[in-house]
Design brief:
Low-confidence stretches: 24-30, 203-214
InterPro entries: Competence_ComEA_HhH (IPR004509), Endo/Exo/Phosphatase_dom_1 (IPR051675), Hlx-hairpin-Hlx_DNA-bd_motif (IPR003583), RuvA_2-like (IPR010994), Soluble_ligand-bd (IPR019554)
Organism: Rhodococcus spelaei
Keywords: DNA-binding, Membrane, Transmembrane, Transmembrane helix
Distance between the termini: 214 Å
Helix content: 25-40%
Number of helices: 6
Pfam families: HHH_3 (PF12836), SLBB (PF10531)
GO biological process, one term: protein secretion by the type II secretion system
Structural class: alpha/beta
Length: about 280
């Protein structure tokens, strides 16, 4: 009996041991299945990677450049503000105004305006004189009233070498329309052939006579423009041409030399041959 009880006790202990081990074995058997359905740890999603933060590190050169830019900007701002500053402009004082008959006094006395100086008026050129003969620029000259023969010669450029100035009264006053004829000075001891003269407007020749020669002929070397103009076929233009030839060549030595004057052809020379002399 005792051995039977011991056997039963051993069987019961073994069954209890199997019963206690079986759940543990079941759990261990289920773990592989559960572990097979699970993802590995390295496949689990981790936290999102953090983005790198931008850092501003200009360095020494960058800092120096920024400082330089700031200084330039400050200078530009100061210059612009200085140019745009308001400038005060002086305002001319207003003249005093009378209101209702009562004068309004000014705050400060104004100096009296200085009257403008009278400009010196140039002498009026209201006289025309003809200057011909041995002068540098023969022709008409404009002179002020009261001018003298010396003024007329100066206006004509002065007398040429060899001109006869002794036959002229350089201090004589001229009138409008007068003519000054500057002739050729005679050699020492010789008679005057082409002297100087002053012809008044509508009057006879003064100084050395330039009247027509004997027999009513006009002396080509002493005749005035008026006397030459009076000849038939000779007008003012031809008379001036004769005087110009005489001015250039000195004097006529032959009547035939009239043919060298502009405007005198053979026909006109034929008419003048018996009316003029030298």
């Amino acid at each position: 009996m005792r051995s039977t009880d011991e056997a039963r006790e051993q069987i019961r202990r073994r069954l209890d041991a199997i019963t206690r081990v079986a759940p543990a074995g079941d759990e261990d058997a289920e773990e592989p299945d559960q572990q097979a359905g699970r993802r590995p740890d390295w496949l689990e999603p981790g936290p999102p990677p953090s983005r790198p933060r931008a850092r501003f590190a200009p360095g020494r050169r960058g800092v120096a450049a920024l400082v330089l830019v700031g200084v330039v900007a400050a200078v530009v701002g100061v210059v612009g503000a200085w140019r745009d500053r308001p400038v005060a402009h002086a305002v001319a004082p207003l003249p005093a105004v009378e209101a209702d008959g009562a004068p309004v006094s000014e705050s400060a006395p104004q100096p009296a305006p200085t009257p403008p100086a009278d400009p010196v008026a140039p002498p009026a050129l209201d006289m025309v004189v003809s200057v011909v003969g041995l002068v540098r620029t023969a022709g008409l000259v404009h002179l002020p009233t009261g001018a003298r023969i010396a003024d007329a010669l100066a206006a004509a450029g002065g007398a040429r070498e060899g001109a006869d100035l002794l036959g002229l009264n350089l201090a004589q006053k001229l009138a409008d329309g007068d003519q000054v004829l500057v002739g050729l000075a005679p050699p020492e001891g010789a008679a005057v052939t082409v002297g100087s003269a002053t012809v008044g407007a509508g009057s006879s020749t003064a100084g050395t006579s330039a009247a027509p020669a004997a027999g009513g002929k006009v002396n080509l070397n002493t005749a005035t423009a008026e006397q030459l103009d009076a000849l038939p076929g000779v007008g003012p233009v031809t008379a001036a041409a004769i005087l110009a030839w005489r001015q250039t060549n000195g004097r006529f030595t032959d009547v035939e030399q009239l043919g060298e004057v502009d405007g005198i052809g053979p026909g006109r020379l034929q008419k003048l041959r018996d009316l003029v002399t030298v």
